[in-house]
Task: structure prediction
Amino acid sequence: MPPFDRRDKIARRAGVMHIHFMTRYVRCLARAATVAAAFAVVATRTAAQLPATVQSPDGKNIVTVALDSGVLRYSVQRNGANVVMPSALGFAFRGAPRLLGGLHLVDVARAEHDETWTQPWGEVRRVRDHHRELRVTVEEDAGARRRFVAVFRVFDDGLGFRYELPVQSGLTQFEIMEELTEFAMASDGRAWWIPSFQPNRYEYLFRASPLSTLDTVHTPLTMEMPSGLHVVIHEADLFDYAGLNIRGGKEQNRTLRVMLAPMRDGVKVRGTTPFVTPWRTIQLADRAVDLVPSVLGLNLNPPSKIADASFVKPMTYDGIWWGMHINTMTWQSGPLHGATTANAKRYIDFAAANHIGGFLVEGWNLGWDGNWVENGDKFSFTQPYPDFDLPAVAAYARSKGVQMIGHHETGMGIANYERQLDSAFALYRRLGITAVKTGYVGDKTKEGDAHHSQPMVRHYRKVIETAATYGIAINAHEPIHDTGERRTWPNMISREGARGQEYNAWGGDGGNPPEHETILFFTRLLAGPMDFTPGIFDISITRPTGTPRPLEASRPRTTLAKQLALYVVLYSPIQMAADLPENYEGHPAFQFIRDIATDWDTTRVLEGKIGDYVVVARKARSNDEWFIGAITDEAPRTFAEPLTFLEPGKEYVAEVYADGATAHFLTNPTAVVVSTMPVTASSTLTLRLAPGGGQAIRIRPAR
Result:
C-alpha cells in the first residue's frame, strides 16, 4: 500500500452495506439447521440444572456454566488448574434494560461431534473436528422475559462459545451497545498486544506487558501464564457483527472484557431475531510450539459453500509493488509510472522463467493521480491508464503460463467500489484473471463507522461472496482480521492485517525490528495466513546514487537467509517474491524461492519462544519434499534438529541456505552460504543463525 503518510498509514475504508433483515434471518435459519443436523445423532438432553460442565475429548479442558445471583457465568480449567474464573455473559441494548441479571435456567443440552475434513489448501491437509458441546438456555424472570442460548464447544486445543438469540416476542429488532462478555483471567500472564482504534489499524509493532495493564487491544491476544500455559483470545465465524477488541481492566484488574467496533452513532450491532454472534475463542496450549498449526477457528466455521474451488491456486508471485515503496516507481501516472504494458511484460517474463506462478500489478487503473486517499470515490476498476493495455497484458500472462493478479484499492470509497463490483469482477473473468488484491486504506468510513464495524464486516463478506460467483480469489489488505472464514469461502486466500514488509521501506522508525516476525508467528498468524511479502535481497536498499541507505534508515532488519526462511515461517498460500527482478538475477539464493512450496500437507513447529526464535518444518502437499525455516531476533542462536519426521529408510538431500560466518542483520546482512548434504530420518542438522538471521532448508528425496 502506498506511503501517502509514512508514519500513519492513514485510516481505511468506507461504506455501509445495506443487508436486509430477511437475508440475515435466512442465514441464521440455515445455520441453525446445519447445527441441528450435525448433532442429531449424538445430541442428548439432560435434566435442566446448573452448574453444568463439559470437557474436551482428552479430558484436559473443562468448562463450567452456572447461575450466580441471576447472572450466567462460565469458567475454564485446564489440567485441574483455573484458567478463566467465573465470567459474566450478556448484552447491553439501546433503549432497553441489560440482558444480564435476573435470569433462570430453561434448558441444558449436550452433544458430541467427531469428523475429519480436508482443506482445499492450507497449512495442513487434514483437520480433525472433535469436540463436545453444551447448550444452556436462560430467560429473564420478569419484564420482557427475553432469553438467549449460550453455546460452548470444547476441543483438545481450546474452546469456543457464542450467543444465540431465538425468535421471541420480547426481543425482535435490537441494537447492541455492548457485548458484556468477560474473561476473568485466573493469573496475571504476559500479553503480546497491539492497540485498537488507532489510525493504522493492525499495523503496529507488538508490545509485551502484564495482561492486568492492558488498555484496549486487538485480537488474537496471546498470553503466557506463570505456569507456562499459553492462552489466546480471538473470535471465529465473524459475518454479520462488529469486530472484536479486548478491553483491559483498571488498577491491576485481570478481567478482560469485549469491546466491539462501533458505528458512527455508537451502536455496535443491529439485528433481528433469530440471531447468532461470532464465536469467542480461547486457544490453550502447554507450550508455545503447540499453538501452531491453529485450527480451532477453522473448526468453528461452516463447511465450504464453494462446490469447486479449483480456481483458487496457491502460488508464488512477483509484481509491480516494491518499486513504489522505495520510490523507483509510482502508482500515479507520470515518468515513473510502474504499471505500464512494457514493465508488466518484463515482470511476466521473469515469472515465467523462474517457476513463479503469478504476477501482481498495482496502479494500473484510473484514480491514483492526486490525493487518492481523499478521492477514493474517483477510482475506476475497469478503466486502465493509457500506457497500460489491460487485455494485452492479461493475454500475454496467459500465453506465458503466469496468473495475473488484479488490484483494487478502494481509497475509502466503499460505495464507489460496490457499485462497480460486478462489472470489475466480470471484466477480470473475461480476461482470465482469477485473483484480486484488495486495499482499504482508512481507519473509518467516510460516514464515520469504524474500520472493523458491522457495516464493514458486511462489506468484506459481500466482496468475498461476490468474487466467488465469478471464480475469483481475494487477497485483502487492510482487512478485517481473519476469523476462519476461509473454510466457508476458500477463495478468501490470504490477507495482510499486520505490520508487513513495506514498513521496512518507509516506516520512518528504522523498519521492523528483528524480533517482529518471531512475535507474528505466535500472534497474528494464529488467526490465519498473512501476505507479508518476503524475499528482499537488496536489504540495504541501494539508492539511485548507487549507495546503500544508512544504518539508521528504514530497511529490513534481517539477513538474506532470514528473508528466505520467512517463506516457511510466515504461512500464506500465496507468497510474493517481493524484490525487483534485477536484484534476483544470477543470485544463487534465489533458487530457494523458485523451489518453495506454498501448499502444505503437514506443519510441525520444532522450536519456538515468542519474541525470540521459531523453527518450523512443513511438508509439501504435492510431493515428498520438506522445508525448514528458522528465524531469530537480534541474538545469534544454534539449534540441533533431528530429522525424525522424514520417512525412515529413505535417502534425502538437504539444500541449505545459511547465514555466512560474518553475517549480521545490520553490518553484513547479505552474507549467505548455499550448500547440500545427504540426510536421512536419523540425521541431525545443526542450524546456526546470525544476529537477526535465519536459515532456510529444502529437503528433497535423493534422485
